[in-house]
């Protein structure tokens, strides 16, 4: 090899090394992994151990499950002042570690009131409408409410509003007729709740009878309630069995099962009124809203669970003779079940 050849070869190598170093210097730094989601008992920043990549991937892919719980004593009164250690949460029978806990006493609510105006409500309509009216008057300025009536058809009388005057106007001129479409009314209410500003969503169903006209079936509306983050409270209005004029119709008492079923799935409860009796409906509305404005929130990251369908929830509370209400379960993100197919 000549001197000239050696010179140009050496020059090429030096040039290659310089260019490579320049490119490396100009390349952006390697992408840093996002910090892992904090655990409930995270160590202090000074003692934090760097998380492995696998830890971050697991945290990022796990769905945070929020469970709201209502705790009642033996008289049906809301139990206040409970702490995280008073609760246990189970998913498909496996106890979960509660990662976040809160007890809020004044949560804004989005309330949907569904009033049965079928023919059988003729002597009960004023009681039902007054109950809806008292609920609207008991709302705080931060709350919202919509009003739906149903018989053979479903009618959205007033979309979501925080103005009680609009609710009062929507309650005027209502008459009874036709059959009962409970399930279709609930489905319309679930749809209206999708635009909710407030986190807590409640539907109050006021009715005296079982469904006789809906296009949906009971299993389909159960499925919709399992997928919707909406609690159903039911107010059943019965004929007074102590009134000798009343002819008891056992068929109409089937709706007690229906109302309890719908309320239990979503974490709500059932109240029972009787036609012709005097009730302090303003007190009922106030007590109900006081309960609805409060909640215990229990959140957890599910332990390994291969069930991609409906996952059953159970909440226990360490409180003598207390009753705890909560939704019966949930679908994990991405679950796709056929309506009515989920087990309870």
Provide a descriptive summary of the structure in words.
The protein has 344 residues and is an alpha/beta fold. It folds into two domains: 58-105 and 296-330, no CATH class; 109-292, Rossmann fold (3-Layer(aba) Sandwich). It contains eight helices and 14 strands. The strands form three sheets. A six-stranded mixed β-sheet has the order 7-6-5-8-9-10, sandwiched between helices. A four-stranded antiparallel β-sheet has the order 4-11-1-13, with no helix packed on it. It has a four-stranded antiparallel β-sheet with strand order 3-2-12-14, with no helix packed on it. It is globular. The protein starts with a helix and ends in a 14-residue tail after the last strand. Mean pLDDT is 81; it is low at 2-60 and 337-344.
Please outline what is shown here:
With 344 residues, the chain is of the alpha/beta class. The chain has two domains: 58-105 and 296-330, no CATH class; 109-292, von Willebrand factor, type A domain (Rossmann fold). Helix content is 29%, strand content 24%.
| Percent of residues in helices | 25-40%
Instruction: Give the tally of β-strands.
Output: 14
Supply the CATH superfamily name of the largest domain. von Willebrand factor, type A domain
- CATH architecture grouping of the largest domain: 3-Layer(aba) Sandwich
Number of helices: 8
Beta-strand proportion: 15-25%
The level 1 CATH classification of the largest domain is Alpha Beta
Which consecutive residue ranges, at least 5 long each, have pLDDT under 50? 2-60, 337-344
Strand order of the largest sheet: 7-6-5-8-9-10
Secondary-structure-derived class: alpha/beta
CATH fold type of the largest domain: Rossmann fold
Distance between the termini: 86 Å
The average pLDDT score comes to: 81
